[in-house]
Design goal:
This protein has one domain: 3-Layer(aba) Sandwich (Rossmann fold). The N and C termini lie far apart (about 60 Å). The protein is about 25% helix and about 30% strand.
Length: about 220
């Protein structure tokens, strides 16, 4: 019989800690947020497996290890405002909400955004808000953000997202420039942006976040 509490404990002990996820607040959040509440019924019993799960069309729950390491490298403080790009069913937004003062989830699918808002409200996560719009364009209305998390792989980080970072802000994404995914941290310093690759990740591409193609004869 599926035991979600035991599954969360196993995820933390077998997937997160061995992969150098050691931030206490993050581990507590992932040990308490019910990941199974954010997947279709057919996926409930596998909600904690170490692989990406498609929870809506083109939307994935990132495998716990990759998600947690990206969030840990963001170094989120309790005072931070966070933009969660491609939030899907809202699991990532829920975890981030336990770490930050305010989290804006961005979703292009209006129906999915409505369902996600209702689920987060049922979990009493009052410091979250789901906005509908283009993922590549970000969410200018609430910018700048101290941290931006991209919930899927991109071929390149859109300039619009980088420009919505506060000075000193960080963005986390898996960048698949040549087919190999690299978990990447972008940090803003004035008008300059530093880029740091931290680990390999075979994360699915996020629709709408591909590199523009040049015209070819």
């Amino acid at each position: 019989m599926f035991d979600p509490v035991a599954a969360r404990r196993q995820m933390v002990d077998a997937q997160l800690r061995p992969n150098r996820v050691l931030d206490g607040a993050l581990l507590r959040a992932m040990a308490e947020i019910p990941r199974e509440a954010f997947v279709p019924e057919r996926l409930v019993t596998v909600a904690y497996v170490d692989e990406d799960l498609e929870v809506a069309r083109g939307r994935y729950l990132l495998e716990p290890r990759v998600f947690a390491r990206l969030v840990q490298d963001l170094a989120i403080a309790p005072s931070h405002r966070v933009l969660d790009v491609g939030c899907g069913t809202g699991y990532s937004t829920a975890v981030l909400a336990r770490l930050a003062s305010r989290v804006i989830g961005l979703e292009v699918d209006g129906d999915l955004a409505t369902r996600t808002s209702r689920l987060l409200a049922r979990l009493d996560l009052a410091n979250t808000f789901i906005s509908v719009g283009s993922l590549a364009a970000g969410e200018r209305a609430n910018a700048p953000y101290d941290r931006i998390m991209v919930e899927g792989a991109v071929e390149q980080v859109p300039d619009a997202l980088k420009q919505q970072l506060a000075d000193g802000g960080r963005l986390a994404a898996v960048v698949r420039a040549g087919g190999v995914g690299k978990a990447t941290i972008v940090e803003r310093h004035g008008e300059a942006f530093g880029v740091r690759e931290v680990f390999d990740a075979a994360t699915p591409l996020l629709p709408g976040m591909t590199k523009p193609r040049g015209f070819v004869f």
